[in-house]
Amino acid sequence: MRDMIRDEVRAAPPYAFQEALGDVKLDQNEAPRDLPEAVRRRLLDRLADADWNRYPALRAEEAHRALAERDGWHPEGVLLAPGSNVLIQTVVIAAGLGRTVLTVEPTFSVYGQQARLLGAKHVSVPLQSPGFTLDVEGIERALKQGPGVWFLADPAAPTGNRHDDGAVERLLDVAREEGWLTVIDEAYWPYDRRHRLDQVRGQPDRIALRTFSKADAMGGVRLGYALGATETISELTKVVLPFNVSTWQSTAVALLAADAEANAAREARIEEAIEERARVYATLEAMERVDVHPSVTNFLLFSVPDAKWVYDQLLEAGIRIRRQDHLPGLDGHLRVSMGTPNENDRFLDALTRVLNLEVTHG
Ligand SMILES: Cc1ncc(COP(=O)(O)O)c(C=O)c1O
Q1: Which of 25, 27, 29, 84 to mutate to test the pocket of ligand 1 (most atoms within 8 A of CB)?
Q2: How remote is the CA of residue 333 from the centroid of ligand 1, in Å?
Q3: Does the predicted model carry a pTM greater than 0.90?
């Protein structure tokens, strides 16, 4: 019975996410505010007019055009999918199988998880401290043993920093010389207001990954996309399953990418997250026994003397954040997403109380 399932799958742990209770939800880097009511209504009206009995368009042209317009790209260089996670898997299938998947460590866990599940070789190069910087020589050495797919989250997750421009450019050049496909995962770029599309434009060996789950406040709808050269995107399109973007999903993208009110609300959400990041950072920095890392994203990574205990105590106070202390190099670390000012205050108050308790707990 067990032999029916491939060894790689049986050896893999389930995705590490603990569904937790608690009314302040700061554990998945989502947008804390939903779309404006009028935008939701417009979307529902469009869905009411759509044909639900028919398969969606094979290539969701309107959605691809709207995204291309929003990001200043060409529509044939856009690939929409039900979440950027799906595209991570697509890229591993297209360019990583029988080759290598290269990541830094720690990073977004899905890259390595997909590599292992699909049976690709996973090589990871630890980030350097302080500051979680790229080990340029180490990554160069790994790139020389390729080719395959190299995933770089920039802004980085879960460390929250932006990687050095010179280091990234040098590594992008080496990756090209060695025949790698480079994926720059820009899930958090809106909170840094900087991206690397100029290094992707016109470069068939590079793609950028983006998601609607964070700044676009659409985590529940599952939408992500890749931007790349026409020839690369058309190869990746062969790998994604036909009709994998539903009429509901493509309708949402077509409306949101072009809706002025939706875009203004998105800007306001980003602005609020950036302001809250500065405020929460300053408060955490002033706390004794907390070590917080600078971030250009909508979350902060920090360490405390006893991460499991602090996490459990916060949960009891109704505050859900995310443990990161199981990841290599992140002993004692927790991650908190930026919520509304009120949610962030509740988190900070609870943390202050818990840390005072912890002194007695020992
Ligand atoms: C770096 C990074 N990439 C991709 C994703 C997944 O995005 P999606 O919801 O589009 O699958 C996340 C989600 O947390 C992320 O942190």
Answers
A1: 84
A2: 20
A3: yes
